[in-house]
Design goal:
Layout (H helix, E strand, L loop, with lengths): L3 E7 L6 H15 L4 E4 L2 E10 L5 H4 L5 E6 L3 E6 L4 H11 L7 E2 L2
Parallel strand pairs: 1-3
Antiparallel strand pairs: 1-4, 2-3, 4-5, 5-6
């Protein structure tokens, strides 16, 4: 199993909001100290990567935010805004809770 978790953020839609979400997630990982963790005795890194398409457009057209998927678990979020980054990092990574208000079914 990989020791790296990734946030894949779609940058294809919404005039740059995906890039802004990616930057906000990186900032929050650093400020909350969750970019590198020790999980069950193993080091785990979390990276934020942008991508061209996640095939979640039908979920993002409903609002001004971006789509993202967290791997390896495969949780998909839609309509994510930069202001959601702090809560997303704290809840999803810090507490292991899915943010139901942003979650979308793939």
């Amino acid at each position: 199993m990989s020791n790296t978790r990734r946030f894949f953020v779609c940058t294809r839609q919404k005039s740059g909001v995906g890039e802004d979400v990616a930057k906000a997630l990186k900032k929050e990982l650093k400020s909350q100290g969750l970019g590198k963790l020790l999980v069950d005795g193993h080091k785990q890194r979390t990276q934020v990567q942008t991508c061209n398409c996640l095939d979640l457009c039908h979920d993002c057209k409903k609002g001004p935010g971006a789509a993202l998927v967290v791997y390896p678990e495969g949780t998909a979020y839609g309509n994510v805004q930069p202001a959601d980054a702090a809560e997303l990092v704290a809840e999803h990574l810090g507490r292991g809770h899915v943010l139901k208000r942003l979650r979308v079914d793939k």
